[in-house]
């Protein structure tokens, strides 16, 4: 490709609305352009990378035995009503109507569609197992699209759905996908860590997210150095030493705490440690108003709480709702003497507490010496606690650490949720009609590319891994008005282009501009036709990722390029 003919608008300055490195560099290197919030065009340079990542994904999915197909992204709402998700999905799902006023959906995910395809086309155990995938556009109307293609509204996802006769089959497909993901990310030059993820109501290690450790990640990963335990904080557990004090129970006592509401304020005001407090929180779900109790030094994990409450929406109750059930403003409530009967969920940390402090359900008052069982009870005890750094590993009791990560992929044992809801049946070997068991497996293509840039760049620009670089090499004639230089550059370009992907920077620009651009767009091998060519007939080879330079005679250029290409490709051939 000739640079002079390419739509490759590089920028000298960082764009104002880009906050993270990958977003800045994707804009500056002319990889993407914004159309609207969360909507991006992949320009020609970016499109080349996109196609390479897609090709790697495709090869590895096929190697793992999955089959590619291409369903529509415009989906009739009736399928979503069948699965029960039409109401559940909320505003992230883009809804629209066709000209006949049929409700339609722009697919945010495709469980319903793939389940329907299998329902229509699969009859018996002979047709299974199946693992079907697409590489297709997804639409999610994210509340806060940000960081360029990391979190956008329209993006390309590879999503696969497996169908098996039994759990053993599902386990096999799941493990095959796990291995395929390991290979895909390794081939893209991306270091990822599989992390135990939240599974909704499935439990067990039935879901893993592939995380790229990064300070710009939106996920928090809890990790034990000692035994290797690693989990998304949404589901992470910790070994907790829960108080089961043998302290004598004292008489309940009201204390005046004018305008003192939060645990921190109470700690200051009363001079006691946060462990002595019971945090009493009132939430609203789509089903109920509920009170949640946890020890004062802990935080509630809302993902865990949602599972316990079996709800989709979870919000702190309003001042008015709190007043209605407790008779007190927020900050002064507790489970003792509630005005109205509501469900109470107690974290494990609360049960063994003695002579605790919490609200009096009366403005400007708290209660001292509150004792579980004696003064209040609960409807359910559960682990709803958010693990924090420094707590103990649930497996080996060593201290837990946490770090941030970007989720690039997700594998999930779905179970029978969709095949049952949508009434999919196949005949098993004994002629019994049974629903198949499903798994689903997603990779965000754009997010993968952005993550590669987060991991592979320097102050000058992107450093592409050879496997997904938009070009293998770039040829820079430093002086376009010297016919000998131009002729040599053209010859190299023509020869190498027969076997490799080469960009020829044939613009009439100053050498400094060309070098800066080459570094910015991150092409792995640079060949400069300049001073050493004029003086001794040699061109200069340089890798983007190192400072070493090699002078090579014209006749040896092809051989030399091949050797460097092979060496640079080697780490990504897994
Ligand atoms: N808004 C988005 N923009 C770009 N890629 C996305 C977006 N949402 C999800 N992805 C990608 O699709 C993959 C599979 O989708 P999945 O439904 O598991 O994501 P998710 O759990 O909604 O992700 P997140 O928690 O980041 O919103 C993710 O691992 C991610 O790589
Ligand atoms: Mg999401
Ligand atoms: Zn451990």
Q: Give the tally of β-strands.
A: 31
Helix-residue proportion: 25-40%
How many DSSP helices? 16
* CATH architecture title of the largest domain: 2-Layer Sandwich
Structural class: alpha+beta
Average pLDDT figure: 95
Question: What does the overall shape look like?
Answer: globular
CATH superfamily of the largest domain: Bira Bifunctional Protein, Domain 2
CATH topology of the largest domain: BirA Bifunctional Protein, domain 2
Please give the alpha-carbon distance between the first and last residues.
Answer: 29 Å
The tally of domains stands at 3
Class of the largest domain, according to the CATH hierarchy? Alpha Beta
Radius of gyration: 30 Å
Which runs of at least 5 residues are low in confidence (pLDDT < 50)?
none
SSE inventory with pairings:
Blueprint: H1 21-28, E1 32-36, E2 39-42, H2 44-63, E3 67-68, E4 74-76, H3 77-83, H4 85-88, E5 94-97, E6 103-106, H5 111-121, E7 130-139, E8 154-164, H6 167-187, E9 193-196, E10 207-213, E11 219-223, E12 230-232, E13 253-256, H7 263-270, E14 278-285, E15 289-295, H8 302-309, E16 314-316, H9 319-326, E17 343-347, H10 348-351, E18 356-359, E19 365-370, E20 380-382, E21 401-415, H11 417-421, E22 426-427, E23 433-434, E24 437-444, H12 445-455, E25 457-458, E26 461-462, E27 473-477, H13 483-497, E28 502-504, H14 511-521, E29 525-529, H15 531-536, E30 538-543, E31 549-553, H16 557-569
Parallel strand pairs: 3-7, 15-17, 17-20, 27-28, 27-29
Antiparallel strand pairs: 1-2, 4-6, 5-6, 7-8, 8-24, 9-10, 10-21, 11-12, 11-21, 13-19, 14-15, 14-16, 18-19, 21-24, 22-23, 25-26, 29-30, 30-31
Helix pairs in contact: 1-12, 2-6, 2-12
The structure holds adenosine-5'-triphosphate, magnesium ion (MG) and zinc ion.
Zinc ion binds next to loops.
